[in-house]
Amino acid sequence: MSKNKNIPEETVHQTTAVVLEHGFTNPGVEPHEPERMTNKDAKAAKRAERQVTAWFLLSIVFTIAAIVAYIALPIRDNDMSSVHPNNLFLGLAVGFAFLSIGIGAVHYAKQLMPSHEMQEPRHEVRSSDEVREEAAEILHTANEESGIGRRTVLRRSLIGAAVVAPLPGVVMLRDLAPVSQGLVNPAEKLRHTIWGDKASLRLVQDPDGRPIKASDVQLGSAFHIIPENLNDIENHSQKIIEKAKAAVLLVRLPEDEIVSGAEDGYHGILAYSKICTHVGCPVALVEQHTHHLLCPCHQSTFDIADSAKVVFGPASRPLPQLPITVDSEGYLVSKGDFKAPVGPSFWEIEK
Q: SS3 letters for 63-92?
């Protein structure tokens, strides 16, 4: 059933004036669509309600299936074949869980929500008390017409689906600090890297592992660096974790242009963590003229010539510097671990 709101006479006169001035006619409200069966037949409305409820309940089932898939199909160390089924079934279950909520919401809107066309004039941004009272009345009417207040099963199934849907994310995030490891503070695991495991570790290129001499690093060049002891780690998963923490960007600047940080470098050669201190993205875009280092994720910008201090963007602290020197053969080596914790600042938070 179509229902138009009465238009004030003043608005009608204004509209007529605009029509006369510009020479076009007011098209008015489009013809109302044929009345829905759910408006005419109580049984059809009840059937639609059951269908919507079924979609919401199905979402809960898929959410539980996602949690089961995550636990039943774990990603095993040194077994890349276990990654595919884990990602496949987890992704499908989470996707169908949200899809079911979406389908149920659309079906609810199309079959059970009011379908009135309304036409009303613009009003000032700040409404009067009378208009606010009218808005409250409209909300009350909408609640009555939509039936969300009286359709108890449908409402509870929607709330249940919305509450349960985030659980797979909670389970996966919780698994970042597994009980089997005694709930060790994650910050402690990320505070130190394998650069600090041995003295005078050679800087080698990623991925070929070739050591670098100071003479190899020319002005304007940049190298992606890993520690030479990385290949000593046999466990593949652990090796990936340690590489992510120890990754370094090596650059060379004119010595007279370095403001600070030269004491931990070697003749203008500086080494900084590649892990952005904002949310951990890899930082690797070097602007040679300004000596700026850019994170492509959120545009945090660091000044390499001034201890990699933040000059722009959301990062809150400089990139940690790796102290370096050369050995007796002229190869670049580390003098210890990074001078500050790597990665996002929240890693420094103590319990």
A: HHHHHHHHHHCCCCCCCHHHHHHHHHHHHH
- Rounded to whole angstroms, how far apart are CA atoms 56 and 97? 9
- Say what the pLDDT of residue 175 is: 64
Cβ partners under 8 Å of residue 120, min gap 6: 5, 7
Report yes or no: 234 and 242 within 8 Å, Cβ to Cβ.
no
Helix and strand counts by DSSP (H, E) for the chain: 9, 10
Name the residue among 197, 257, 246 with its Cα closest to residue 224: 246
Domain spans, the chain: 9-179, 187-348
pTM: 0.53
Q: Tell whether domain 187-348 is in CATH 3.40.640.10.
A: no
Low-confidence ranges of the chain (pLDDT < 50): 1-5, 351
pLDDT at residue 221 in the model = 84
| Cα–Cα dist 194/204, whole Å | 14
